[in-house]
Amino acid sequence: MNKIVVENFSLTYSDGTESLQNINLKIKANAITALIGPAGGGKSTFLRAMNRLNDLADVATLAGHLFIDGQDVLDPKVNIIQLRRTAGIVFARPMPLPLTIYENIVFGLRVAGERRKEVLDETVEQALRQAQLWDEVYDRLNDSAFAISGGQQQRLCIARVLALHPEIILLDEPTSALDPISTAKIETSLLELKENYTIVIAPHSIQQAARIADDVAFFLQGEVVEFAPGEKIFTRPEDKRTQDYVQGRFG
Amino acid sequence: MLAVGSVLTILPIVAVVIYILVLGAPAINWEFLTQMPKNGMRDGGILPALVGTVYLTLGTALFSVPLGVGAAIYLSEYSSDNALTRVIRLAIVNLAGIPSVVYGLFGLGLFVVFLNFSTSILSASLTLSIMTLPVMITTTEEALRAVPQSFRVVAISLGATRWQAIRRVVLPQALPGIMTGIILGLERAAGETAPILFTGAAFFLPRLPHSPMDATMALPYHLFVISTQVPGMPIRVQYGTVLVLLSFVMGMNIIATVIRSRARARRVW
Ligand SMILES: Nc1ncnc2c1ncn2[C@@H]1O[C@H](COP(=O)(O)OP(=O)(O)OP(=O)(O)O)[C@@H](O)[C@H]1O
Ligand SMILES: [Mg+2]
Prior knowledge:
Chain A has helices at about 45-50, 80-85, 100-110, 115-130, 135, 150-160, 180-195, 205-210, 230-235, 240-245, and strands spanning about 1-15, 20-30, 30-35, 60-70, 70, 85-90, 170, 200, 215-220, 225-230. Chain A is an alpha/beta fold. In chain B, helix 3 crosses helix 6 and helix 3 (about 45-80) crosses helix 10 (about 220-230). Chain B is globular, with a radius of gyration of 21 Å. Magnesium ion binds next to helix 1 of chain A.
């Protein structure tokens, strides 16, 4: 089943660079889709387009369609707050808010008006368990979120997104600042989470894509050169440029 | 070299403070702070001037804090960089450079005469507010800009509106900086004579003001009066008054410094 359908999607920033050109993708539900490609290819731009976080940046033009469950998120009438709760994002560096661990996780619920303590407490435990962090922090939920390690902070950011009860999880190089052990933990939880969520990730290496991705899209200078199941991209890519990239010949 | 330079700079300040302490301290006692002036202000206390300065400072805060902080939030968080905001910023910079007596005359024209608020605490507070606004706006804006942009993006990515992101994340982080700016602005207002001269300061009032529409005595103006207008003024009373004004202003300064250094120590980003 396709959760996200992208049709002829293009985006330019106001400095004139055409950052995404005519993207067409069908992203499956309950799967991990990896966006790979060299720097500046447009992976982050694409991720941030899906929950309209690009609205905060200097975007000049948008064209085409970006359907989530059949609803075009580029439609001016779309409820953006609701969209951002449906498609939560995790950034490259761990970015806790300057609040406690607990308040970081319930932030999205609080701004949505949730006040019931039982609901908040329950969400915190559930989200932390899903992000494999509960055992490490359950006894210091009221400490500053900056008081835990970088790897823990990043899992906290994942838990914070899970607390929104999203359908889609967007991750922009979530392990690029982490050590191999923290990275492995996050990859394990992503593989578990895909049972219940649609996951789109810009992995921080080709190896990571190979380890976790079901489908892979190769982004090169704003275009999707090739989009196929991971084993196909890594073993017998159709495009010469894809082959060069996955074999490490450029980028 | 630098060390010598800084000592040479601080030396006169220290000397002045010591001089004031030595000459003023003997005047300071409970009576001096809580009694009306007596005998043509040559005796008794300075209560009405002290209370007046407190009222004027609070009155100034009442107008300048919401306006200044609000304007800074607008400029730093909402406005885009266009012709209008550039004009506003230019105006703020220029306002900061205007001599305080000009504010006094402006307040006289606008509040006392045109709006008919008479020479009153209200007129004087409004005048002082306008004078402090540039400081309030500039320091608040700086404090807001010091909060990393990523906090706003993260909050918004979690479904917060722009205002929720400001209210729940940005403002709490900027608060110490904003408080410091507010106090420094009010401190300047508390020590000024010229802006209140024509707008609300009374030469001598043997009672405390009853309402915002009353004129009031105030420490800086009282000091001017007893230093130049009253023959046979005891030095002790003059320097006692200086010492009280200086303590008031320095006290605010110390509070601001404490807030700032505490916040620095606690800051995580
Ligand atoms: N806020 C912005 N304003 C203007 N141009 C931008 C902005 N963000 C990205 N770009 C440009 O858009 C293009 C795509 O950038 P993007 O960050 O999406 O690439 P990426 O594939 O995520 O790269 P990386 O692997 O380095 O993260 C680049 O040319 C970049 O310079
Ligand atoms: Mg990127």
